[in-house]
């Protein structure tokens, strides 16, 4: 026979493992920054001086490696270190959509999201969606050439949404009016 009750002073067993909680994004960013650059609170002043001396850095004001770097170089290094290249490339893709496809096409289409390598574009009519589907290979090639870090593999073009006929608490199931939209 086994006892299901824990002995005094012993921790009780948990019936099932609980899944780990998701860490909020801002906390995850802080943890990545801390891991990349280290925690200065854990090092003493002497340890930091020894670490600098071990790197063989010159303390001469105009010595080798002491040249200032431009802000673009610093930010590029930071985004590469933190793994932010893909989200930044995706945001640039969405912002530069009109420049990439041209003003006329951009007037009739707009990107609505990126999920798992698929860019979804909403068009204002079905003919525009059909025409852009025919141009999918060209548009995808432009995206891969200009924004390789975005990770876009394909583009999905959608027509306009049909209006919803379900209003109120009581609705009757069915297909609604038999008219086409777009």
Write a structural description.
This protein is mainly alpha-helical and 182 residues long. The mean pLDDT is 78. It is built from 8 helices and 3 strands. The radius of gyration is 28 Å and the shape is elongated. The longest helix has 13 residues. 8% of the residues are buried. Strands 1-2-3 form a 3-stranded mixed sheet. A hairpin with a 2-residue loop joins β1 and β2. Among the domains are: 43 residues, no CATH class; 74 residues, 2-Layer Sandwich (GMP Synthetase, Chain A, domain 3).
Write the layout of secondary structure elements.
Layout (H helix, E strand, L loop, with lengths): L24 H13 L7 H10 L16 H12 L2 H11 L1 H5 L1 H6 E7 L2 E6 L2 H9 L1 H11 L7 E5 L24
């Amino acid at each position: 026979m086994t006892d299901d009750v824990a002995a005094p002073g012993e921790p009780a067993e948990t019936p099932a493992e609980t899944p780990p909680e998701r860490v909020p994004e801002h906390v995850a960013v802080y943890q990545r920054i801390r891991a990349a650059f280290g925690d200065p609170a854990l090092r003493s002043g002497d340890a930091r001086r020894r670490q600098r001396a071990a790197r063989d850095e010159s303390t001469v004001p105009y010595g080798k490696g002491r040249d200032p770097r431009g802000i673009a170089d610093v930010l590029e290094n930071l985004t590469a270190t933190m793994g932010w290249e893909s989200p930044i490339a995706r945001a640039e893709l969405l912002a530069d959509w009109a420049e990439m496809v041209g003003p006329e096409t951009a007037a009739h289409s707009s990107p609505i999201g990126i999920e798992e390598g698929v860019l979804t574009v909403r068009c204002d009519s079905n003919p525009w969606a059909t025409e852009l589907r025919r141009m999918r290979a060209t548009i995808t090639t432009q995206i891969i050439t200009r924004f390789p870090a975005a990770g876009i593999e394909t583009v999905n073009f959608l027509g306009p949404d049909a209006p919803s006929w379900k209003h109120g608490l009581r609705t009757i199931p069915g297909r609604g009016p038999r008219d086409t939209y777009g």
